[in-house]
Amino acid sequence: MIGGLSIRLKLLLIFAVLGVGAVIAVNLALVWGAARAAAEQAVGDTYMVVGIVASFAILALTALIWTVVDSHLARPIDRLTGELRARAQGQVKTPMPLDAMAYMGDLARAAQDVTQRLTQAQGALTDFVDRETRAIASQKDWLEALLDDVPAGVLLCSNDHKLVFYNGKAVDLLGGMDAQGQGPALDRSVFDYLHEPPVRHAFERLMSAYDRDGASDLLCSAKNGGAILGARMRLLGHAGQTGPTTLRVGQPAFASGYVLTLHDVSRDLAAQTARDQLIDEMFERVRRPAAAIRSLVGVLTEADGPQGEAREKIRSAAHSEAGQLSSAIHELSTRREALRDATAALGLSVRASDLLDAVRAQIFGRTDAPSTSALPDLMVVAAPLILRCDGFSMVSFLSSLLRMVQKGDETAPRRGFRLEIVEEGAGAMISLEWDGPPLPLNDLERWLDLAVMPAAGAGPSGLQQGGQTGRQILTQLGTDIWPERIGGQAVGFNAGDPQGERGRICLPVRSARRAVQPVAALPRRAAYDFDLLNKSRNTDLHDTLLDDLVYVVFDTETTGLHSERGDEICQIAAVRIVNGRRIGGEVFDTLVNPQRPIPSASTKVHGITDAMVSDAPMIAQVGPQFHAFAQDAVLVAHNAPFDLAFLRRRSHEMGVEFDHPVLDTVLLSAVIYGQSEVHSLDALTHRLGITIPQEVRHTALGDTVATAEAFLKLLPALKARGIATFGDVVAAQRQHGRLLKDMNS
Fold first, then answer.
1. What radius of gyration do the chain's Cα atoms show?
2. Of 39, 499, 669, 709, which one's alpha carbon is 20 to 30 angstroms from that of 364?
C-alpha cells in the first residue's frame, strides 16, 4: 500500500509520524512525571527527569525515522543519481534496478522511462551516424591495411617527439614485440626507441630552414637491437594551414609534427662490407700465385732456360702455384655463391602453383605463342611448396624455355609436355618433360646464350630484362640447368615404334619450404591517434585534464591473497588507454614464475598451474618490463592496494620503484554510485553493461580488459559531476577512504 504512494505523500507521512510521535512522547513523559510527582511530591526533580526522558524519546524516534529515510529514500536517490549518470554519460543500456527503488514511488519509473527514451534516441542517432560514416569507416580500414603493408617503416611524431602513428614495419625495425607483447606505444617519446641526437638535429635543421616541403635524410640506430636505420624526415604543417609561415625564434609556427620513414641499412652495410672484403681478399689471394706462375712460365719458355733437374723444380713450383690458385678461385667462388644467396633480392617467395599458373598464362596468352593445337596437353603439377626465388625471372625463363623445346625439329616433334615442381632436400626441382627426342646439350647451351624476352614490362627490381640471356638469368637465380634422357616407353607412341623417346630438362631451386599448413596472418599492428598532434601538455599532474592523461590499466593473478605472508605474482597483464581509447595492439601479458608452489585453491580461481609457470620469467625480470610499459602513465586497477602491494614488496629485486600516480575503479565506483553499493568488479561491470566472458574471468588479461572498459565508462560520469582534472579525482577518491586506501602519496 505504501509503495503506491507518491514520494511527496511519503515525505509528508514521515514528518507526520515524527510530529505525532514527538507529541506522544512528550505527553507520555508528562503523564509519567505527574504520577511520579504525586507519589514522591518532588515536582522540580520530576519535571527535569520528564524533560530528559522526552528528549531521549524524541532522539530515538528521530534516529528511527532517519534510518527509514536513509534506507528507503536517501540511498535509493543516490543509487538513482549514479544510474542516471551512467546512462547519460556512459551509454549503459541495462534496465534500471527498480526493485531497489521501490519506495521512491513513480520517480524511479519516470527515470526509467526517461533513460529508455534517451537510449532510444542515442540508438537512433548511432544508427544514423553509422549509416553516414560506413563508407568512411571502410576507407579507414583500407588505409590502415595499406599503411601497415607499406614496405618501409613509418612513424608520425608530434613536435615534442611523441609517437602519433606507427605501422607494422616500423615495429619490426624498432626491435619488434618482445615475449610480453611490448613494443612501440602511442604518446611515448620516439627517443625511447631511436637514439636521440640524429633525430633531434634533423628536426632542428628543418625547423630552421623555413621550408615546410623540405626533407632531411639521416642515419640513426634503434635502441633495441642496435639496427642501423636510414631515415627521411618531413615536417607536417598545422591542420588547415596551406602556405608558408614566418617562424618566431624558438617557436615552431607551422610544424605540428613530422614523418619519419625508416629502412634497415644494417643488412645493406653488412652485405657491402662482405663484398668489399671478398673482392680485396680475391685480389690478394690471386695476385701472388698469378704473378708467380707468370714468372715461372716465363723462365720455362726462355730458349736458354734451365734444363734437367732445375727445370723439373720450376715445373713443380708452377704446378703448386697453379693448384693454390685453383683452390683459391674455387673457395672464393663458393663464398661468392653463399654471399649472393644471403643478400640476393631474391629472397622473394612465390608459391609453386602460382609460378606454374603464370608460366601457363605466358604460353597461351601471348600472340606469338604456338597454337593450342601444338601444345594440346600441357600439364602442370606443383607440390605444396613456397619457393625462394625471383618469380618474374623464373616465369620468363621457363616460358621461353618451353617455347624453345616445343619448336624442336619438325621431323621429330615433341609433345605431351609436363611441367612439374617437386620437393628435393632443402629446395625443389623444376622439371620439364615431354614425349619425343631429348634436347641435345649443345642446343641448350646455344639457347642459353640468346636473349630471353619476357612477356612485357620490367622485373621486380624495376630493370628491363629484355636483353638478358638465359645464362644471365640462371646466374641471377643462382642455379643451373641440364637435359636428361628418360628411360621407358614414351606416352602416345606405339610400343613397336623404335623412335619412341622421352626427354627432360632439370632446373633446381636452392631454397623452398612446405606450404601444407597456411601461415597464420600477422595481426595488424598499425596504431595511430592524430589528435595527439595538437594535444596540450600540462607539466602539473594535479591540474592535468583526465582526457589528456595516458593510463595503464593492469591486473595480477597471485598464489594467494597475502603478500606479507609470502604469496607471489604468477601472472600480470596491462593495456594502455591513450586519448580516451584503448589501444588494441599495446598489451602487456605474461606468466610469472612465483618460485613457490601454487596452491590448488588458487589454481581453481585463475587456472594457473605450476607446470604453466615453470619456464616463465621471474618477477625480477618481468617487473622492469612492466615498469617500462607503464612509463609516464597513470596506473589504474580494481582494488589497487592489493596489486601494488605485491609489486612494491619486490621493488628492490626489480631495481625500480612503482611510484606512479594511481586511480582505483573501486573508489571511482563509490564516487559515482555511493559507498552503500557493492563495488566488486562483477557488480561494477554488471551496472555498466559490460560482459566478462566466463572463460577469461579471473585471468589477468580478461580482468584487465574488463577494468579498462569500466574505467572508460566511468570517466564521462566523473566529468559530469565536475571532476575534470587528476587532482579533482584524487580528492574525490579520498572521500571514500573508508572503503580503500588511496595509493597516491
1. 41
2. 499
